[in-house]
Task: structure prediction
Amino acid sequence: MSVKTDAIGKEWPATTYEVGKEKIGEYARVLGIENPVHFDREAAKAAGFRDVVAPPMFAVVYSSPAVGPAMFDPEVGMNFAAMVHGGQEFEWGEPACSGDEITTTAKCLDISEKDGKGFYIFETNAVNQNGDQVVKGTWTLIVRGV
Amino acid sequence: MADVNVGDSIPELTVTPDKYLTHRYAGASGDFNPIHIDAEFAKAVGLPGPILHGLYMMGLVAKANAALADGDPRALKRLSVQFRGMGATETEIVVSGTVKSVDGDTVVVDTVAAQGENQTIRNAEAEVVVG
Result:
């Protein structure tokens, strides 16, 4: 068997996510992040943010809905039972704040095979309601036994 | 100019996720893959038990690096990680890192997250603006 590479370059429809104050707080609490800018509107504004601000890795919350359909696309053809998340990169721009509406697109950058493993690389790009770049994500998924 | 030099260690972050952490992280992140929250399912697919979300551990790596800038969420500009081992609940995670370059106020930190000898995240590179 070998990997299908037809989906390289494919882009999927954008998803939108409205960032909520309590969702930011929920995420920060699970990670044990205590900076009040993630919970308290006044503290966030005093620190120069438009509103309660998300920790950087909150990026997974609004980026995942965009990359999900790409991963499940039959044209990509990943075998989920044998898939592991091999690597992840994020590059941040404008912080994500409560009330932001973030639009994220996903694209397949590459599909390749090495030593019986399939390497699937996706990119997500998230921009806010003002058109500012919020985060770019690079997702590397590895499927064993292709 | 940042008061950080090549070879400096970042403050070590230690966390012992409790038995229900993966459930809380699933709710917070939206990732309900049963390998993280269902012990029977995890064992049926050959895992020792529910495994930690890789992105949870990456979140801890981000937190440890943000500490260089007193937790300022604007400080972390880029974070690239490789997931190399499965993490377990009820086991201490140690996140440690070493500054490998300094350019003005921007430092690059090589970071590792480990449970004992099991390096769950390695070759993590964080670009952080300090000072």
Observations:
- Helices of chain B lie at 21-29, 34-37, 39-44, 54-66.
- Chain B has one domain: 13-129.
- Residues 54-66 of chain B form the longest helix (13 residues).
